Amino acid sequence: MARFIAVRLAATLLLLLALSFIVFGLLHLTPGDPARNLLGPRNPSPEALAAIREKYRLDEPFLRQYFLWLNDVLHFRFGTSIRSDTPVTTLLADRVVLTLQLALMSFVLTVAVGVPLGIAAAWRAGSLFDRTVSVSSVIGVGAPSYAVGLVLLYVFGVWLEIFPVYGSGDGGLDTWWHLVLPAITLAFGIGALAFKVTRTAVASELQQDYVAFAYSRGLTHSQVRALVLRNALIPVATSLGLVFGFLFGGTILVEVTFALSGIGGLLASSVTFKDIPVVQAITLITAAVIALTALAVDVLYYAVDPRVRQRGLR
Amino acid sequence: MNALELVDLRVTGPGGPIVSRMDLTVAPGETVALVGESGSGKSMTAKALTGLLPRGVTATGAMRLGDTEVRLDDGPSALVGLRGRRISLLLQNPFTSLSPVHRCGQQIAAALPGGGRGDTAEVLRRLAEVDLPARVARQYPFELSGGMRQRVALAASLAADPLVLIGDEPTTALDVTTQREVLNLLARIQQERSMAVLLITHDLGVARERADRILVMYAGRLMESGPGADVFSSPLHPYTSGLRDSEPPLAVRLERLPAIVGSVPRAWEIPDGCVFAPRCSRADHACTVNTPVLEGGQRRVACWKPLAAGEHAQPTAVAFTETARRDDDLVVVSNLTKRFGPDSPPALDDVHITVAAGEAVGIVGESGSGKTTLARCLIGLERADSGTITWADGETGARRAQIVFQDPTSALNPAMTIEAALAEALRAGGLDRSEVPALLDLVGLPVAYARRRPNALSGGEQQRVAIARALAPRPRLLICDEPVSSLDVSVQAQILNLMNELLDELGIALLFITHDLAVVRQVVRRVYVMHHGRVVESGVMDELISAPQHDYTRQLFASVPGR
Amino acid sequence: MKRLPITPLVAAVPLAVVAVFVVGAQWLAPDATTQDIYTGVTPPGTDGHLFGTDQLGRDIWQLSIAGAGSAVIGPIVIAIGSMMLGLLLGTLAGYIGGGLDLVLSKYADLLLALPTTLIALVVAGLVDGGYWVTVLVLLVLFSPTDIRIARGAVMAQATRPYIESARVLQLSRTRIMFRHILPNVLPIALATMLLNVAFALVAMSALSFLGFGVGPGTPDWGRQLSDGRDLIGQNWGAVVVPGLLIIITAAAINLMGDWLQERFEQRGAQR
Q1: pTM of the prediction?
Q2: Taking CB atoms and an 8 Å cutoff, what residues of chain C touch B416?
C-alpha cells in the first residue's frame, strides 16, 4: 500500500513539475516584451522597465528564471498583481472561500442527484423513466453552463424573483443563498455527466453473470443491489474524481455569469488585463487541485478493488 | 413425488418461438441430462425455470417444485421465494459467476437461510462439503483456480438447500481433469442430499456418463428421451443418431466421420413440420408438413420415421492405413523455452518437437500447458527466450507456415468481403486472385460466398473461410489451434472431415493443437502431450492410447467423459 | 427488433436548420450587423423585430442567424483536425508501441491533466490571436482524448485473430494498419468526432462569452449572450434566442453522436 502510494505520489509530483514549467512559460507566450506586459497598459519609463526586469529577474537565463520562480511558488509567493498592485496570495485568499463553497455545493448536488438517478435508470433500463432521464442527460452534458445560468437567472431571478440576481451576498447564510442558482447551474452539466457514468457502470454490472447467479440462488433484490453497487462503485468513484476537475474549469463561466467574486471570475478578468502573476497562480493551483484529486481517486480505487490491491503488492 | 415437473413449457422471444411444448420431470436423487447443440434452447429452458429470461423473452407453462405449483405465465415474480430454496442454477463460467470484489465466504453466506456473515461455522461447513479449506472463505474469487471457483459457486448455489439444481454446462469451461473432479463432487453431494439434478450440456460423453435419463433437444423441441444407457447406444431419432455419430470416438480412427449435413437453424429459419427434416436423410414430404410430437413409454421420440432398434448401422471403424512416416523433417524445434514474466512459471520449458514434410502431428494439453505458446512461436507471433526452430528448406515468409485460430467469428476482418480476404492471402503467396473460386471450392463453400462479408456466414462456414485463407499461399505447414472447439458437434465433424480431405489432397504438413484427445485422434498419427510447458510424452496415437507411459497422460485419458 | 430510429431523426431537424443558417446567412440575415443606435434596445415583438433589438439596435434574430457560421465552423474544424491527429498518433502508438507509445501516452496524460476550458481561456486570451488561434488551441487540447480513444480501439483490434492472421501472411505494417485496422476503428472515430463538435461548440462560445475568440462586432452566439446578460430586464430575446440556439445545437449533435456510438458498440459486440 505504502509503495503504491509512493509511486503514484512521485508520478503526480512529476506531472505537477511539467505543468509548472508550462505555466511559467505562459509569461513568455504573451506577445511582446515580458517587462512591458508586466507593467500593464501604462506607458513605462525606462527606470520602471529596469525595475520590473530586476524584480522578475528577466535578465537571467530562462531556466534560472524558472527555478527561482518555482522556489518562490513552493513558498507560496506568487508575486504581485499587476492590476491591483496587491500580493497575489492576498487576492486569492479573499476569493478562494467563495469558489470552494460553490464547488462543494455543486459537487454535493451532483452526487446527490446524478448518482441516484443513474442507479435508478440502470435498474429500469429501457423504461420510459430511463429513456427520459437518459435523453435529458445527453442534453445536459452538452448544455453550456453560461447559457443555462442565464436562463435560470431570467426565470428565477428576474421573472419569479425568488433568488438574488447578481453578486456574492454579505457572507454567511446570505452567501449560501446567493450561491444556490450558480451551484445548480454548475451541477446541471456535471450532474448529467455523473448520471451517465453511473448509469453505464450499473447497467454493465447488471449484465454480468454474477447477477443472474445471485438471483438464481434466491438472493433478494436488495442483496443483489448491494452486490452490484459495490462493483459499480469502482468506475463511478473514478469518474467522480474527473468530475471534480470539470467542476474547477466550470466555475470560471458560472462566476462570470452570476458576477461572483471568486477565483474563476478573477482568472477571467486577469486574462483580459494580462495580469500574468495572477493567471500563473490560479492556473497552477487549479492544476494541482486536479492532480491531487486524481491521486486521491487512485488511492480510493486501490482501497476498494481487491484485484488492484493484489497487483499493487507484486 | 417428483422434485420437478414441467408441463408444456413454451419460451418465446422477439424472433419467434425458442422452446416449444417441453415436458420434463426429475425425481429426487435423479440426474436428467438435457442435451443439445447451440441454438437448441437448452439454456433458455434453464433460464425459464429460474425466472431469469432476458428482456423481451417470455415463458408459459406449468411447473411443480416439490409440492409448490408455479405458473410460469405469471412472469419472473412467480419464482421469487422459490429460487434458492426449491430450485437453483449453477452457471457455466466460474470466472464471471461470482462477484469479483466480494469474499467467497460472503457470497456463500448471502444465500444461507439465516443470511449472516462470511466466516461463520455454517459457511465453513458448506466449504467443507465442496472439499474446500476454510481459508477460502476469506479469499476473493480471483485468488482461486477455475475448479476452486466452480466449487465455491456450487456451495453458493446449494446454500439455501434446493430440491432441484440445474447445472447449465457447469464443467464446460474447465479442463478435463478438473471437470471430472467437479462432476464427481456434484454426484456425491447429490446423493447425500438426494437432490434432483437437471444437467444441461452439449457434451454427449458427460450426459452418457452422468445421467439417469437423457433428453435430446434440437431447435427448441425435444427430439427424443429415454434411459441414459439407451439413448445414444440405440437412438430412435435420426438426429440423435447423427449427433452420436458426429462425435469423434477416442478408441478408433475413422476414415470419415458421419457428419450431419448443414447447420442448426437460427430462430427465424425454423421450418414447418419436423424441425430436423431439412437435414434428415430419411425425411420425406410428410415430414416437412406435419409436426411430430414426443410419443412412447420409457423411450419417447418425436419422429415420423424413427429408426428401429438395430436398424442403425454402427459407424464402422475403418482401419486407417497410414503411410510410413517420412524422414525429411520440415521443422525441428529444440530446447525451446519461454517465460512471460520473471515470476511466472515457464510457458515453454525445454521443448523438442519435429514435424516431417507432409506429416500430421498433434499437440495435446490442457489450458496452461504451453501448447498455444508453442504454436505462436512457430508461426512467429511470439519470440522464444532461448532454443532454436530450424526449417528444413528455403521456403520463407507466408509460404512456410500458416495458422487457423479457435474462434471463427473474430478470425475474419468484418470489414472485408470473403473475396478480398482470400485474394489478399493469395497475393501473399505470390498467387493471383483468380484462384479464389477454386479455393472456396476446396473448402466446400459455394463460389457465390466470395461476395459476402463474414457476419453473413455461420460459424462453421467462417472456419472454412479461415482454413481457405491459411491454405491460400500454399504453405508447407498448416497450424490449427483448437480449430473445432467452438463449433457444434455436427459442424465439428464436417470440419474434421474437410481437414482430412485437404491433407490427402494437398500433401501438406499439419500441426493440430487441441485439448480434445478424441478430436486429434481423427486427424493425426503422432502426438506430443504437453503439461506445464513441457512435453511429457510423445508417440504414435495408437500406442499412446493402449499403453500411456506418463502419469499425466494416463490421467488425461481417464478423465475423458463417457468413453 | 428494429425500431424506427427516432433519436437521430429528431436531432437532424435542428441540425438542418443550423446548416441552412450557415449557408444562407447572407440572404436570410442581410441586415444582421446594421446598427441603429437611436432605437437601442427594444423588447421582442417591436415593429419588424421578432425578438427585439440589442443595445446597438441590431435585430436579434438576424444577428443569431449570422452567428451560426462562427458557432459551428470552428468546432467542425477542431473535431476533424483533432481526430485526424488522434487517429494518426493513436494508430502509431497503439500498433507500433514501444517508446513511441510511451512518449505519446505521456503527452496525452499531460494535456488531459489540464482543464480544457481553463487552458483554452488562458492561452487564447494571452495570445490575443482571434478566432483561428482559438480553434488551433482547442484542437491541440482536444487531441489527447482522441489519441487515447484511437489508441485503445487500435490495440483492441491488434490482438484479434484476423490481425494476427494478417501478420502471419507477412502483410506490410502499412497495409495492416490502413486496410485491416483503420476501417474497423473509423466508426468509433466518427461518433467521437461528432461528440467533439458539440464539446468544441460549447467551449468556443464559452470563450467568446468571456470576451475572447471572435472580434468585437462580429455576430456570434457567445458574444450575444454576454452582451444580452446586461439587457436581461429590457429584452429577454437577447439572451433566450442565442442561449437556446447553443443549447439546442449542442444537444442535437450530442444525441446524434451518442446514438451513433451506441449503434457501433452494439455492432461491435455482435461481431
Answers
A1: 0.83
A2: 179-180
